[in-house]
Amino acid sequence: MKLDILVIAVHPDDAELSCAGTILKYKAEGKKVGIIDLTRGELGSRGTAETRNEEAKDSAKILGLDVRENLGMRDAFFKNDEEHLLQIIQKIRQYEPEILIGNAILDRHPDHKRASGLINDAVFLSGLIKIKTELNGVPQSPWRPRLHLNFIQDTYVKPDIILDVTPFWDRKIASMLAYKTQFYTPDYDEENQTYISNPEFTKTIEGRAREFGKSIGATFAEGFTSAKLVGVDSLFNLI
């Protein structure tokens, strides 16, 4: 299956927190969208790899994803090396996305920045003809997405692109709260509270989205960074 947009994120819930509104927007336009999670988030303080797996499935249904996979890399201990790069390159070549979105280039969680570097390198290398990969014994062709973006996570990074996601905000929050062990929900209580399970955390997600939205005259928006300059074919497309 060829995808229009592929999101690659290190933890299940990273994509929901950072670009679920964007996913929902383009699914509503009939685009094919998938998420590949690198790890199962098994070192998270709350829940287990098994609960995260079920939560990711529940969220995928809310988002209407065409594909959701997990590469099973070791949470916190994955590396930017040949083995891990080839895993991602294989998936990029399998799904041939026009747009690829990855983890933030800078963030408080060390996995996020490290994953960003790994994904960024894989995007470039996936276009090189001399790097050989196979899928089910069949050689794959090189593929490099036309547009590669990074979403923004907890640490503020000035966005290069801001996208209005106002009509999809409630469903974005629903996709986040599918992770009942990770975020605050009234029907789930656990003594081991964390930074993101605090009820105030969801309000910070809303605050960031409102801040980005204000910049473009929208209520809620999501921001992205791009390593290269982004061009348009008409200035009127920016109005």
Description:
The chain is α/β, with parallel strands linked by helices and about 240 residues long. It has six helices and nine strands, in the order E-H-E-H-E-H-E-H-E-E-E-E-H-H-E. It has helices spanning about 15-30, 50-65, 80-95, 110-125, 170-175, 200-215; strands at about 5-10, 35-40, 65-75, 100, 135, 140, 145-150, 160-165, 220-225. The chain has a seven-stranded mixed β-sheet, sandwiched between helices. Helix 1 links the parallel strand 1 and strand 2. The longest helix is centred in the last third of the chain and has 17 residues, at about 200-215. It is globular, with a radius of gyration of 17 Å.
Q: β content, as a range?
A: 15-25%
Secondary-structure-based class equals alpha/beta
Taking pLDDT < 50 over at least 5 consecutive residues as the criterion, the unreliable ranges are none
Q: What can be said about the biggest beta sheet?
A: 7 strands, mixed
Total of DSSP H or I helical runs spanning 4+ residues: 6
Query: How many runs of DSSP E, i.e. beta strands?
Result: 9
Mean pLDDT: 95
Topology as H/E string? EHEHEHEHEEEEHHE
What are the key terms here?
seven-stranded mixed beta sheet, two-stranded antiparallel sheet, 9 strands, 6 helices, single chain, 239 residues, alpha/beta
Q: What is the element layout, followed by pairings?
A:
Elements: E1 5-9, H1 14-28, E2 33-39, H2 49-63, E3 67-73, H3 82-95, E4 99-102, H4 110-125, E5 134-135, E6 138-139, E7 147-151, E8 161-164, H5 169-177, H6 199-215, E9 221-225
Parallel strand pairs: 1-2, 1-4, 2-3, 4-7
Antiparallel strand pairs: 5-6, 7-9, 8-9
Helix pairs in contact: 1-5, 2-5, 3-4
